[in-house]
Design a protein that fits this description.
Helix content: 25-40%
Order of helices and strands: EHEHEEEHEHEEHHEHEEEHEHEHHHHH
Distance between the termini: 31 Å
Largest sheet: 8 strands, mixed
Mean pLDDT: 94
Low-confidence stretches: none
Structural class: alpha/beta
CATH topology of the largest domain: Rossmann fold
Shape: globular
Radius of gyration: 22 Å
Strand order of the largest sheet: 3-4-2-1-5-6-8-7
Bound molecules: 2'-deoxy-thymidine-beta-L-rhamnose
Amino acid sequence: MNNVFTPDNNGVVKHWDIFCTVVDNYGDIGVTWRLAKQLVNEYDIPINLWVDDLLSFSHILPKLDASKKQQSFNSVNIFHWNNPLEIQFNAGNAIIEAFACELPSQVKAIIERLHLQPHTQAPTWLNLEYLSAEAWVDGCHGLPSTQPNGVKKWFYFPGFSPKTGGLICERELFNQRDQWQADPRHKLALFQQLGLQGINAQDTVISVFSYETRALTALCELWQTSQTPIHALIPKGRSLHSLIDLLPCTIDDLIPGQQFTLGNLTLHILPMTDQNGFDRLLWSCDFNIVRGEDSFLRAQWAAKPFIWHIYPQEDDYHLVKLQAFMQIYCDNLAPEIATTWSEVNLAFNQENLSAVVMHWQQLNSVSLPLMQHAIKWPINALNDADLASRLVQFVNNS
Ligand code: TRH
């Protein structure tokens, strides 16, 4: 089977290929799918997205048919990446390997052939790296590495400073968010559409998309004793493993839309939605507990306070990354707000149960300035340009 984009009569090919292996969870496919959609929608770049695990992908794109080798959504060509490739590969302007996934040997051979062919423009070959707020990223973004086949592969590092590759953010996102948040009927309609019952406009609503942690158990126990109603919205998945003792059935038996009342806390089992639906959910909650890379960024774009449950790494290296982010997020924040917000994030990630409970309670006294900071932060974090626009410029200049 041919892939959809082939050279035109002048030999010019414009499309890009993005390769993604799903290591675990939804972050790898979440980031590449989001980027693919934006490149098509905002830059008219035809995109082929090659994915090895369509079943995982279908959790965040429920309309995807995991049995189909080739399909198209949001004008992105989605190809099942199997080994060896069954779909013919034609190189375009750029090849992005996401998160150091190893390109298929056929693809590498084509890159090498084009590189050696005189008068031919070989595609720009990029490795899209994980997001980090650490300072060293400034110096590594955009560096080339010459591969054994003689071709240069470029390291593309997303990041928070102007010297990095930027952050994924769609052009109209903040306008759409502001319009949504301007009218409380939007959130109530969304909760209803998701099958969540009994949430009133003034209730506190918290979304939870974390990994397993007893810090969440401790927070849920605290929320049960709240003076006012709290709703925790939790999709079927890793967070619920920490709440098993609070549930009357196994996780497998849970059904989206089900709810459990525990004192003043209502736990709602949330259906997973596509990425647009997930954004609207984050915009609609008072506080979001997020994880990994993509939901972490979307929680920032939601302009609401959040806890980041960072993806755990060997030797606690994730805590270095967490500190790096907390430092830039808290720059310009009054010390008492910065300390409270940082301590609750640190305690959650370190499973320090008494500390997470204590600092959560302290958040109440700084909730207004923290909210104001969350509103200002997205514009500051983006700097002059988002990731897609910096990436397009990078490819055009290379
Ligand atoms: O799923 P994650 O834990 O992914 C992680 C991280 O990316 C980590 O850095 C990486 O090393 C590891 O995977 C392999 O968390 P993340 O990054 O937030 O990705 C979740 C994606 O799922 C994101 O694109 C949002 C999406 N999502 C939906 O689209 N709908 C939903 O209902 C939910 C809950 C999530």
